Amino acid sequence: xxxxxxxxxxxxxxxxxxxxxxxxxxxxxxxxxxxxxxxxxxxxxxxxxxxxxxxxxxxxxxxxxxxxxxxxxxxxxxxxxxxxxxxxxxxxxxxxxxxxxxx
Length: 103
What we know:
Oligomer: single chain
Distance between the termini: 18 Å
């Protein structure tokens, strides 16, 4: 897939690995059309303009991970089990991924 210009972030998993995160329309639509409809819908539910629900963030981060990589090395369950429990970092990442600034 061609390089896409969107905000790129990283999250450090509990095992010490850094993984990329990004969100963009082209990759989200591709994911939805290629077997990840449930993941994309769950992720989009968390950013529909309502108050931030911290328990919806794992779904968003999973989808942002899928958008950032061509071949995921984790299943959804593996990825979510490796997410750190850091509410401040979670909120910051959420805000950064939804920022208009492109990196």
